[in-house]
Amino acid sequence: MSNSNNNDNNYDRIVFLPIDSIKEEQHYSTLLPSIDAVKYSQLKDDIMKNGIKLPLVINSSNILLDGYTRLRIARELGLKELPCIIKTFDDRLEEELYILTINYYRRDLNTAQRGELLLRIMEKEQEISKRRSLMNLKPFRDIMTEIGSSMTNNKSLITNITGEGHGTPSGRVRERIAKEYKISTRTIDKIKRITEEAKRDAKIAEYWQEAKEGKRSINSVFRKVKEKEIRENIKHVIEEGKASLDDLKNIRIIHGDFRDVLKTIPNDSIDLIFTDPPYSKKDIDLVKDLFLLASRVLKPSGFIAVMYGQNHLDIFFKVFLENSNNLRYYWTISLNLPESRELLNTKNAVIGWKPIFIFQKLPEIAVEHRFRDRISEPKPDKDIHEWKQDLRSAVHVISSFSKENDIVLDPMVGTGTTVEACLMLKRRCIAVEKDDEIYDVLLKRFGNTNNNNSHNNSNNNNSNSN
């Protein structure tokens, strides 16, 4: 059956075409992840028994848009005629967007595969958005009319895809897609960083392939990307003339999980705990153990300052109330992030601030000086680590709730913002980090003879905290 005279009435009408009349387009066939051998075999068995139940999709030139795996199986089985649906598009860009979106929902993909597919969808959306912006410029419209572009004949289709207005900026496209496809902007950004790095680094590409095969999580690959950046972009806070060896002797870096390596730290020995734990529900036990630690090791009237996300505060405070009999809520500091565009998709909230909760060990005593409960900082420099907090925020908290020569403990220190602040403010610091590579970075940044034997050794630390 010929598909000449194709028009809008052909949409979603199934026609049967000779298999040899269906044309393949190599670029279109590579837009999507390949199906694994097991699923391919299962699909082939199903087609052998029941035929092709889901029609192929072709354009008005008989070029295959959707159904490359089905076409391959049909050829292997010697099928002569295939059910097809003819779709009409104005240009190649819209065809590509259709291929990507229909398979995002239809295919059995894991999170990594869906994320990579979503990046391509976002790219096509942005290209269409830019083109639509140009279509609002008369010189461009005139040029396109002269070269016979069909875009001007179906501008409504572009409007339907990109929305109203004079083009959608890439940030808005990203946020809209995150909402539409129910994925966080943070995850989109992670996947984008991974795929960009995978083009340059064979090892990252190998990790990413494992994620697409379901053997790794997106977060585990992203950590590898960040670890690489850590190794390549170590920034030494100790500059000539800024910190002496005597200063460094007041820094103790311990390797391990704080729940293990701080068991022998003396009771009532710490003036301030300042830390930024993970915010997810699955890590809530870390928060529980953090409050238990604070209840034991803080000096009377000592403080614990916890930077925490807003999403699970009900659970956070429930854990606090259940595991800190001798701690009391003191105050909240608002860390405003005016440059942040992070979207919490589950709540549809663009995050513009972060709370820092202050708790005090009994007896309750007000601090001797005034402190501001609002900090407005630019976006943190995260060249060293994804979760690196702004140094000035750490300086503000540590200077507000401790004094010179006080002992500040960070049980989950990351790449060392708390350490940097303590060096600037002349505080003694105990820093704990369990990640091997980040711990090595800490030693390179703040290394001194006191830290040479600090692997999994909290006993050595006690001499520095009394």
Strand count, sense and barrel status of the largest sheet are: 8 strands, mixed
CATH architecture field of the largest domain? 3-Layer(aba) Sandwich
Q: Quickly count the domains.
A: 3
Q: What is the 3D shape?
A: elongated
| Low-confidence segments | 1-11, 147-169, 233-243, 380-388, 452-466
Beta-strand level of the residues, as a percent range? 15-25%
CATH class of the largest domain: Alpha Beta
Q: Work out the number of β strands.
A: 14
Q: What's the Cα radius of gyration?
A: 29 Å
> What name goes with the CATH superfamily of the largest domain?
Vaccinia Virus protein VP39
Helix content: 40-55%
The whole-number mean of residue pLDDT values reads 80
Strand ordering within the main sheet: 5-14-13-6-7-11-8-12
- The helix-and-strand class reads alpha/beta
With helices defined by DSSP (H or I, 4 residues minimum), what is the helix count?
19
Characteristic terms for this protein:
466 residues, alpha/beta, Conserved hypothetical protein from pyrococcus furiosus pfu- 392566-001, ParB domain, Rossmann fold, 3 domains, eight-stranded mixed β-sheet, 14 strands
